[in-house]
Amino acid sequence: MPCYYFDIDDTCSTLVDDEGLELPDTRAAGRLALELLGEAIMIRADRLPSRIAVEVRDAGGAVMRACARLEVSGPDDTSGSGIN
Known about the structure:
Oligomer: single chain
Low-confidence stretches: none
Number of helices: 1
Order of helices and strands: EEEHEE
C-alpha cells in the first residue's frame, strides 16, 4: 500500500507529517484529509485562522489538498473577524 503524508497549514504555522500512513488508495487519503481538516478547525477554533489546509503527498510529491476558509460573523460585526 502507498504511504501518504498529511501536512497541516493554518497560515500561522505548518505541521509537517514525517511519518505518514499506509492507505489503499487516493480516495482513502482524500477521506482522511477531510477528517483531519475538520479536526484542525476544531482544535484551532480559539484562534480561528483565516484558512486551514491539509496537503496530502506521497513519495512522488503533492497528491491533493483539502482546505477551508474560516470566518465567523454576526449581525453586529463590522470588523470582519466576527469575534468580539
